[in-house]
Amino acid sequence: MDQLDELTQAVQRLYQEPAVQTGYLKLFHANAVAEFLALGYRDCSSASDPESEIPTGVRQVMDAFQRLHSRQHVRFYLVDPTYYSWSLQRRAFHLGAPSPEHLCKSVIFENIRCTHSDYSDATDSRYYCVVVQYVSSVNVNKLTEYVRAATNYAKGKKQYNFRLVDADTALTLTGFGNNAICPVGLNTNLPIILDHAITQLQVDT
After folding, report:
1. How many CA within 13 A on the CB side of residue 174?
2. 83: left (phi > 0), else alpha (psi -120 to 50), else beta?
3. What sections of 76-163 are H helices per DSSP?
4. Given this structure, which CATH class describes domain 102-199?
5. Sheet arrangement for strand 192-194
6. d(C-alpha 142, C-alpha 135), whole Å
7. What residues does each domain of the chain span?
8. What one-character DSSP code corresponds to residue 116?
9. pTM
10. Which pLDDT tens digit goes with each residue over 67-91?
11. Does residue 192 contact residue 10 with C-beta atoms inside 8 Å?
12. Do the beta carbons of residue 39 and residue 62 sit within 8 Å?
């Protein structure tokens, strides 16, 4: 384990080198464009299309990026069925991420004390899609204060009680299954809250 830790630290130090940072980003974007051009773009919903073998959730994300004219800026990775049992560092290595801190997840929270089911108003929604780092967790107290601040604290704390939604509700709201929610391509226009720490990430993090 000591040797593995030393190797991990050595790799992370490499990402701190300016030349490596620049090269990493250039290579990522070049590969993204190459994959896009090699695949071309076809309507992923077509059953006769070769892309129909791609999982539904992945096609959903691909279509969303295509509508945003950003398909050539992202990459998709094939992972082992046991991927979610791997350590975060192993996942980062597999995805070519600079560090485990760059691995993020999307979770759906519900304010169970909300008096309505609407989510069209980002300042007063029953549901929120929260994007957070895997190395971190959502602090519901901070989440509550963030949402309250958006309304200039128009409601008291007792009117908020955020809980993770169940898998069925998440599937209905997002179109994605368990451990597979992506903030791009959601079934509904849920308000999205991005953890501030993610905005501070750099290649050398």
Report:
1. 29
2. alpha
3. 88-95, 140-150
4. alpha beta
5. 162-164, 104-111, 127-133, 192-194
6. 17
7. 2-76, 102-199
8. S
9. 0.84
10. 999 999 999 999 999 999 999 999 9
11. no
12. no
Give dist(CA 6, CA 16) in Å, integer: 16
CB-CB contact of 89 with 100 (8 Å) = yes
The span from the CA of 64 to the CA of 54, in Å, is 15
Closest CA relative to residue 192, chosen from 64, 16, 44, 84 = 64
**Residue 204 zone, left/alpha/beta (φ > 0; ψ -120 to 50; rest):** alpha
Helix segments in 68-158, DSSP class H: 88-95, 140-150
What percent of the chain shows pLDDT beyond 70? 91
> Beta 104-111 vs 127-133: how paired, if at all?
antiparallel
Residue corresponding to tokens 């929270």: 109
Q: How far apart are CA 77 and CA 96, in angstroms?
A: 10
Query: What's the pLDDT score for residue 167?
Result: 95
Residue found by looking up tokens 């959903």 in the block:
60
d(CA 199, CA 73): 18
Of 98, 124, 127, 73, nearest to 8 by C-alpha is 98
Distance of CA 5 to the CA centre of its chain: 27
Cβ atoms of residues 58 and 75 within 8 Å: no
Please give the C-alpha separations between residue 11 and each of 8, 16, 23, 195, 201, in angstroms, as whole numbers: 5, 9, 14, 26, 17
